[in-house]
Amino acid sequence: MTTATCSSSSSTLPTTLLRGGGGSTTGRRLLSSAAGVLSPGGHRGGGGRATITGRGDTQLSSTAAVAPPEVHPDGVTIIKPDRDTRHYRYLVLPNGLEVVLVSDPYTEQAAASMFIRAGHMQDPPELAGMAHFHEHMLFLGTERYPEEGEFENFLTQHGGSSNAYTATESTNYYFDVKSSHLRGATDRFAQFFRTPLFAESAIEREMQAVDSEHSNNKNEDTWRIYQVLKATANPSHAFSKFGSGNYETLRPRPEEGVDTRASLIDFHETYYSADAMKLSILGNEDLDTLEAWVRDAFSGVRNTKPPAVPDYGPYPAFGAAELGRRVTVIPLKETRQLALSWPLPPYQGVTRALLRNLYSQGYEGEGGLHKLLHGRGWVSSLSAGSMVTGTDFQLFRLSLSLTEEGERHTDEIIELCHRFIALLRSEPPQKRIRDDLAAMTEIGFRFLENGGPSRAVQSIATTLGQEDVVPAEVLSGAFTVLEWDPAALTDVVNRLTPKNCQILVVSKKDEEEADKDGSAAIGWRKERWYGTSYKVEALSEELLRRLEGVPPHVEGFPEAFRLPGANPFIPTEFSLRADDAGEPAAAAQEGTATAGDADADAEAVRRLLPASIPALALETVPKEDWSRLVPPSLVAEGVGGEGGRGGAVNLWHKMDRSYRVPKSSIAAKLWTPEPYASPMAAMQARMFVRLLKEDLKSWAYDADLAGLRYSLEMTTRGLQLSVGGYSSTVALLLSKILGHIGDLLAEYRELGELMESGRGGGGGGAGVGVGGHAEGQGLAGLTARQELLRQRYETSRESFLRYYRNSAQDQPYETADYYVRQVMEAEVWHIDEYRQALEDRDACTPADMARHFDKILGRMRVDVMAHGNVGRKEAEDLASAIADALSRTEPLPEAELPTRNALRLQAAGEGEGGGGNGVVVVELEADEAEKNSAVQVYLQAGPGESNLDLASALELINTLGYTSAFQQLRTREQLGYMVYTHLERGPSGKVTPPASWDGAGAAGGGEEMHPGGPLAWSVVVQSPDKTPAELEERVEAWIAGFRDELAALSDEVFQSTVASMSSSVLRRERSMREEASIFFGAIASRTGDFYRRYRKAESYRRLTKQAVLDAYDQFYAPGAPARRKLSVRVASQRHARDAEEKAAAAAAEGGWGHRGGREAGGSGGPVVLRSLEDIRAFKARTPIYE
């Protein structure tokens, strides 16, 4: 169930910060060759409009494959994919506001997004953070709807949510809502931009909210490093501004002539002009209806004609004074990063797309920079792309995550990066790479499936807001590659010089030097807003000359660098298996309907459905779509490997006839208890999976570029593998993954034997470089490949160890959530136990990892689902490939499948012992710099999913409670930025064999057949000002008062909320991938409940207001006999000292005080758990949930 989120999200960070990645690929010219039509609406003009509703067959062109559009000589023709059933219309209102309407007759959820061409780079110099603050204020009342929170309440009652974000040069507001309430939501949304109140009563509180948000961000390295980047930019350029703001920067200062409210109004009138806005709205109404609503709601937005293009003056964001520099940053967490950044003109189109392709495919494949550096054990990841894009510049960044060994070779890595760039300069641009990229973008657009409404409108509005994007391309722009332009590429590469580069090094190596007295004298500075230590040093002339003169050749690596080769994974065959299935009866065998007589086909499909299918499923899904209701069928049990050995694989299959795209997927859950048998077992299993994925990188990126994806994850119950993409290449990808599991395990097995025998030395060597680049203490007798594997093992161990050590810097609310699970899950290991296992160098070795993974593969039970454009014989072949890879695996008996269990807390009315008065976990925040404290109040309720009516009542309480808690605890009481509620399901200890399934649930139907774990309601608050105990008091006060809100609900609001919840779970799947996820979820969870959402919707429809109040009174009301409470308090060290003082004062007066209560084994008062030992002792005497 979607609920209203916080009224405004945040200011944003570049998505490629440090990690790099792709920049925007919008900004192409009109795709005239795609549709064969050059629309006169290719430019933007007032009052014009165009509609596209046509569909048809498409052939690949030199740009993108699209459905032939209807041509409208009076407007714009929007290009859309082959299979897109939505209809689009572009129009410009008389006030200049540009709009794209989307009519989707199948959608149950509507959405809208407004893009504003103004961000924090437009902040007035005296009020840093104004754009972000203004974003917050728009949610706090308008002339037509003056009540704060009215918009969120409306959305919550109608199954919706809202949010917003502020970027450098833009702001985006968006919402979604049940389709039947789109008009009401649209009218409320429009008032944001017409008549916001900017009420004096809200300004002070919301400045505090922005300050709380900044307080949360201060301990996040990503924000800290980004602000250092701004601090090292040209101070005369707007990019250098402090974008998120805080109370200090936003408060009124009459002595300086700063009036915050007047500035808010001025900012709104200046930048929130209709011709600087781009709106997209999606609903299930026809286009004419949507247009009428938009004209009525948004025509009143004023056009104040702001500057069309921001003027940042004559100074570049990064000029000569800021470049040719090395910036060293001290992080809070144990992080090692290297980034090389070059400011470039704001290139668009083929130039940016090809650069991203080169700086990704070339790096991870053979002959690439990533291959070389990873092979030396110096980097764990490498990426590149446009980190920041603006009107007058973009920042192109090459980002590397360094290992501990790599940190010692930072200068050599910098030189190797410039050597690779020298390769790009030394060879002419490769048209072949452009053609590969063009082929895949064409295929990707042709078979693109519809995304969710909220994501769709955000993408359209944002794309429409790009100055060089014509309206025709709001869908196709990201999938378009322009004509070949080698001169433009050459110009870009020639700008990637050492003098034009800023080098960023993030490391704790110099932390002691930066913190000591007198550090400023040797160049260390403190960034103003976050307090980050950093140093800026000019690159020496000698170093610049050396880097500028490096050749694209590395001694010892005559073939080290080369450009990417042809991509073998690009699909060439796109036939649909459903077209070959034959008559309806044959199709029924495949589990779907066929074309032909609709009623006959529907009846053929109906016979495939289980007798216990919920009636609501047949009522709400049209007959012609009943094939979507047919679950995967169990076509084979106990599939064995080559020669029939093993017999551990069960196969489910469903061939698609609904989405008709040439894509398929195969997903496998490999059940085994071994990965979670001990902390060491868990770490060795996770490390092998990570090492396997790293070893697959040399070709996996090619697969990704060709539209294939794979996931391989170790869980507490085994291994989960999935492969999906274009049908013609799925089997190839699966076979490579399966083959590599055995090959890599054999290599590590041999390496372990060598190291244990002494022929390869012992563990813990400092590392040997490949190709003659020996460093430190080498290991004798290992081949280059074996030494590479040994280094990778050490790098993986170090990476996990660093991750667990960094957990000490988690935000308090994250720590609270972690400790809820530590207490409530019966079988769970602790971070400290993982860390201790990793630090045991004698036990944590490649040999032990190989032995443990052999044990994992020794006994398994495997559930496999083949779904999509795949016939039964193909599905059986895929399952056989998995069985062959497990040919030595013994079947794990069903009775031995691993389970997970939840503790059953004692209820308040169940007497002494076991925590009946509540359990409090007190954990000091390890980081002295952390100023925030947090509390999570966790109320365990009834028997969870086995009682859907109770679950529905609890879900409604959470849906309404989320918004109520936010408004009371954050907006009114200003406790902190982080306030939310959520309903969670505890683990269930039951699994059932598939032979007992009938498609409607593990036990074959009925209301008591779903073995879900217990439900629990959590309320989370984080604050810089209150102790955890004080926060808990406010949470309890809100919970007590929330009962009155529930009782006061009108019948209209209650029924509307219930209807929205029902509509949400009945939402039609938007893609084949989404359908596969739903079906495999029922298989992987061993519930067999393919129709759970329909039974949930039936339960919602039975729900009464009295049932909701009864559930509240039974489980949540303070003092209720059935109340089961766990409270996790996480204190900053400052707040912990305050609490100790208060507790001492209370004890002196004979009371319990804030930290009172009994110890883990005491009696009277709440149980207080202050250590992992306390938690384990408590769990040992607490029953699990049956």
From TrEMBL:
Q: In what residue span(s) does the Peptidase M16 C-terminal domain sit?
A: 260-432
Residue span, Coenzyme PQQ synthesis protein F-like C-terminal lobe domain? 1018-1077
Task: Give the protein's recorded name.
Answer: Similar to insulin-degrading enzyme
A GO MF annotation of the entry reads: metalloendopeptidase activity
**Ranges of Gly residues composition bias in the record:** 1150-1164
According to the UniProt record, one GO cellular component term is: mitochondrion
Q: Where is the composition biased (Low complexity)?
A: 7-18
Indicate the segments forming the Peptidase M16 middle/third domain, all copies: 445-584, 649-744
- Classification via Gene3D superfamilies: Metalloenzyme, LuxS/M16 peptidase-like
Q: Which InterPro entries match?
A: Metalloenz_LuxS/M16 (IPR011249), Pept_M16_N (IPR011765), Peptidase_M16 (IPR050626), Peptidase_M16_C (IPR007863), Peptidase_M16_M (IPR032632), PqqF-like_C_4 (IPR054734)
* One Gene Ontology biological process: peptide catabolic process
Top-level taxon of the source organism: Eukaryota
Peptidase M16 N-terminal domain segment(s) = 99-235
Q: Where is this region: Disordered?
A: 1-78, 988-1008, 1139-1164
| Similarity comment | Belongs to the peptidase M16 family.
Q: Which UniProt keywords apply?
A: Hydrolase, Metal-binding, Metalloprotease, Protease, Zinc
